[in-house]
Amino acid sequence: MNQDTVMMLASQTLWMTILLAAPMLLSALTIGLVVGMFQAATQINEMTLSFIPKLGVLVIALFIFGPWMLRNIVDFTTRLITNIPTLIG
Question: pTM of the predicted model, to two decimals?
Fold first, then answer.
């Protein structure tokens, strides 16, 4: 396998990982920031207050972005499998 091919495949794989993780991570980051600001303003230091909203937002984000994420990973896997002959030879 060619060095350029390996680097291209690694680059595409890392980019796909970033694309698939971004919606979940950004939604958890956003709700964590909002809840943290609320906790700082009200001086409520309850651990479940930050965990439960994050869990709820992650479930909602998975329902919203799940089909898009699944379509991306299926397309990537299909391209990867169909390109096996060119990657080997």
Answer: 0.80
